[in-house]
Amino acid sequence: MKNKDAVRLGRKGGRATSKNDPDRKHYRKLAENMNRKIREKKDLLVDFLEESNAIEGVYDDDSFKQAVYAWEYLKKQKEMSIGVVLKAHKILMLHHLVGMDKGYFRRVPVWIGGREGIKSSFIREAMEPWCLNDWLRPEDWKRHHIKFEHIHPFIDGNGRLGRLLMNWARVKKGLPVLVIKESEKQDYYKWFK
């Protein structure tokens, strides 16, 4: 019997493998652990996206789906750029903003927590160095998130997108996804004071 046939028949190195084979048990355990870790990551991601939406009072299925699509897009990006930020915003807000309000920097003033956001004419100028900083050190993720929210580059979706970008940076630096729960939003808002 040829070696390829032995493998197909459940044989290894000319001997039959069984459920009790130590190698088979080892690989089964590895596969189970990998599957468990994948499930845990998916559960954490679902928690993050649901809670992030809930902080903004957004509970509909379409917004959750668009948040998943925006996260999947961001995960594939090797570095941050204005183009990445704009596209992620467009994906996230696809069915909730119209025309030039999704995927484009705002052109109107906004108020956040009782203060006016930076003038719309300065947004690109503020975002360029924000993107270039590229989250240099793992401990910078919070400071960069706060900076993004102070820039407030969009008419809507800044909080949700900001948390997506923050977690993108955390994952890129080997940190876990940070879930900020809706029940913790008052503590979260204190970051920005």
Question: Would you kindly provide a written description of the structure presented here, covering whatever features stand out?
Answer:
The chain has 193 residues and is mostly helical. It contains 8 helices and 4 strands. It has helices at residues 3-8, 22-55, 61-75, 82-92, 123-133, 141-151, 158-172, 185-189, and strands at 11-12, 15-16, 111-112, 115-116. The strands form 2 sheets. The protein has a two-stranded antiparallel sheet with strand order 1-2. A two-stranded antiparallel ribbon has the order 3-4. A hairpin with a 2-residue loop joins strand 3 and strand 4. Helix 3 (61-75) runs antiparallel to helix 4 and helix 4 (82-92) packs across helix 7.
Can you summarize this structure?
By secondary structure, this protein is mostly helical.
